[in-house]
Write a structure and sequence with these properties.
This protein has 443 residues and is an alpha+beta fold. Helices cover 67% and strands 15% of the residues. The chain is elongated, with a radius of gyration of 39 Å.
Length: 443
């Protein structure tokens, strides 16, 4: 028994292994940001839950609309009641009929086959439709919020993977430079042009670059796995990202503000919450008013399952009813419910104004962040160019005996810092731009 339990996970793994391998093979290729977003939407559970809630709210909205229309049913029943062993004073078709033991029942044998149409006219049904409309709008807004949050996560991970790959390349170039410098110092020591201390300093730098490369590879692998969790059934799938294009230009602020106000899901969510609160208040108030219930029934309800009875009497017929129930006293329960819904509605209005303020602040913050990051890209590129030239000149000065090993090491560190800063600067601008695009619904 225990052996079977231990083998069960192995059997499951073997069963899913072919599909995982197929997914892994299919994953290999250049994945664009749009591809990553599409894959993440198919795999992320929170987004799937929001999508399911939106679909459920849509169905509830259709049900609320259907509740405004008449409903029809076909009723069939056979009712048998024990006889009280007494005879009726009248006869049907010349046959004496015994009375049923229950006075509420009409006959010992009673057959019912009827088509029934019901319609209820009242404010409660209208209020339910309003609430369903508000909930559907809320679910749609929450889905968009979940989508934009997922997009922000994917963008961060996507460009994080790209930057980690760049940093691995930077660390590899730095190690190559450190290896070259160790060779230069050793040759100079052999030629009695440099002290052994220069070799030791170069070797210390070489060891540090080896550690930096190992850390960069580890960080890159972690970033790839984190993105792989969102994109593939097997996070360890082999994949490559599409070559990054030049960072796009920052749109003008006026167009950003217009799009953000028109397409902000937080505002739509808060507004839908306010509308839902109003609908609940309407429903609570509707309980103070009467409802009109209409009924039309056509069919047979007789001791015989037939259109006509044994005496020729017609069993087939119809009935109609109209019912009005007037609420009189419920110990102020309805009044308290009205107060409760108004309290919640007031809180929803506060949330709406807070969402409006948050939109203004986020718009200003995100645009300022993107603008500063864009302005710094040119400066970062220039720093990398200057650092490379500085390292080249410092190497020449050291070889000519005019510089020190510390000058070379300092120039190497400066170049590494500049290249890493440029990689981080590109990611910073892309993320800031993605935040703006997410805020406006353009991504």
């Amino acid at each position: 028994m225990h052996r079977r339990l231990h083998l069960a996970p192995l059997a499951l793994l073997l069963a899913v292994a072919p599909s995982v391998r197929a997914q892994t093979a299919a994953a290999t290729g250049n994945i664009t940001l749009d591809d990553a977003i599409r894959r993440a939407e198919a795999n992320e559970p929170a987004f799937a839950a929001a999508a399911a809630e939106r679909q459920a709210a849509t169905l509830e909205r259709k049900n609320a609309r259907a509740a405004l229309l008449p409903n029809a049913s076909y009723h069939n029943q056979f009712l048998f009641t024990e006889s009280n062993h007494t005879q009726l004073q009248t006869k049907q078709g010349g046959i004496d009929q015994s009375q049923p033991v229950f006075i509420a029942n009409n006959a010992i044998h009673e057959y019912t086959t009827q088509g029934i149409v019901n319609e209820t006219v009242g404010l409660a049904q209208i209020g339910a439709l309003r609430l369903a409309d508000a909930n559907a709008a809320l679910a749609q807004a929450q889905l968009e919020i979940a989508r934009r949050g997922l997009v922000a996560t994917v963008v961060s991970l996507y460009y994080g993977v790209s930057a980690s790959g760049d940093k691995v390349a930077i660390a590899q170039r730095a190690l190559d430079e450190a290896n070259r410098f160790v060779d230069v110092t050793q040759k100079r020591e052999t030629a009695r042009e440099a002290a052994h201390a220069d070799v030791i300093k170069a070797q210390l730098g070489q060891a540090q670059r080896q550690r930096d490369l190992a850390d960069a590879k580890l960080a890159a692998e972690k970033a790839r796995l984190e993105l792989g969790v969102l994109l593939f059934p097997n996070p360890a799938s082999t994949y490559t990202l599409a070559a990054a294009d030049a960072p796009p230009l920052l749109p003008d602020r006026a167009s950003i503000e217009t799009a953000a106000r028109a397409n902000n899901p937080e505002l739509r969510s808060a507004l839908a919450t306010v509308q839902a609160g109003r609908a609940e208040t309407f429903n609570a108030q509707a309980a103070l008013l009467p409802d009109l219930a209409l009924n039309f029934t056509y069919g047979v309800d007789a001791p015989q399952f037939a259109r006509y009875g044994p005496d020729g009497a017609r069993n087939l017929g119809y009935s109609a009813s109209a019912t009005v129930d007037l609420p009189l006293w419920d110990w102020l329960t309805t009044e308290r419910k009205v107060k409760e819904t108004r309290i919640r509605s007031d809180a929803a209005k506060v949330a709406l104004t807070a969402a409006q303020r948050r939109l203004v602040a986020d718009l200003a913050e995100f645009y300022a962040e993107a603008d500063v990051a864009r302005q710094q890209l040119a400066s970062l590129d220039a720093s990398v160019i200057d650092s490379r030239e500085s390292l080249r000149l410092t190497d020449l000065r050291y070889v000519d005996g005019e510089g020190t090993v510390l000058d070379v090491v300092d120039a190497q560190n400066t170049l590494i810092s500049a290249e890493n800063a440029r990689a981080d600067g590109v990611v910073r601008y892309q993320l800031a731009l993605a935040q703006l695009q997410t805020l406006t619904g353009r991504l």
